[in-house]
Each structure stands twice: as C-alpha cells, then as structure tokens.
Amino acid sequence: MLENSEIKVFKRIKSFPFEEDDEFAHGLSIILGHPDILASKAEIERDDDITLQAKCFYFSRKENITPPVNVRRYQAWLQAGSVPALQAASLIDQQQIRNVTIAGHANAPLVETEPAYPSSFAHIVELITAGQPIPGIQQIPDTILIGQATPSTRSKRRKPWEQQSDNDAGK
C-alpha cells in the first residue's frame, strides 16, 4: 500500500517546475541524445518511461530522498489517480521484488523466473542459444593462415640496459 508520505512526494514531483530547471533540461537532453540543445518544454512534459525515470531520479537526488522514488509506483499513481489502483500497483511491485515462484508444492525449492527482456534482445538471445547466425554481424572464420608467414626483417629490439651497457663499453 502507498503511504501518505509517498503520495505527498508524488504530488511534489507532479508540481515541480521541471521545465524551468536548466540542470534537469540539460540532463534530459543528454538522455534523449541531443546534449548540445536543451530539452524542449514538450520533451520535459512527456509522460513516457524515460522522462518519468529522469524526473524521479532528478527529484530524488535534488530533494535527498532515500530510497529513491519508485518510478513504477509513481507511474501507476499518475495513471490511476485512485487509491484501489494504487494498492494493486503496490501488490504488483511486491511480487516483482520477490521475483520467485514456488514450483510444485510448499516444500519444493524456489525457482527464479526469467527476467523480461525487450523483444529484440530476447530474439538475439534466442538466436545465440540456438546457434543461429545473428543478422548484421559479420562471421569471421576461426582459421590461421598456415605457410604464409614471412620471417622478420627487422633486428631484435634491445632492452634499455643492453643499450646502456654498449655505451659504457665504448668509453
């Protein structure tokens, strides 16, 4: 369940003037891939995952909030706006924190579930585990060219103490 203090923090984040904060705008512009141009007001006001994560991170650092603001809970609070939905989001977060299921019955060992990867990453992992080639990756054969080596034409490099001993011998 969300606590009153957490809801107060969420309200403070929502009312924080991010669009007037040049430090935040610069940080967001770096995240969005254009570090030379400050983030626009439209980019700062977006409610996508990246912007919300940046807002929660920045606000947590600026206000010294420990532990940092939970982005998922804040996102659920923004979307729902009602206490029952927030309680459901809280239960989902608790389940994700555990990330463990019981296989079989109560005495069975705990088994971790596989983490959820983005679909493109999951596809690449699937290709690797199946031993299939990955599109866009050049295949380099693991061979050594035997019989094509040439002997070195340069003299062996001398060590510093060997060079100094030759100079001392000439004196």
TrEMBL record:
Alphabetized InterPro entries for the sequence: HTH_76, KPWE_PEX14_dom
Location of region: Disordered: 150-171
Composition skew (Polar residues), residue ranges: 162-171
Highest taxon of the lineage: Eukaryota
Domain PEX14-like helix-turn-helix intervals: 8-80
Protein name: Uncharacterized protein
All residue ranges annotated as the Peroxisomal membrane protein PEX14-like KPWE domain in the record: 117-163
PANTHER family according to UniProt: CHROMOSOME 10, WHOLE GENOME SHOTGUN SEQUENCE, PEROXISOME MEMBRANE ANCHOR PROTEIN PEX14P N-TERMINAL DOMAIN-CONTAINING PROTEIN
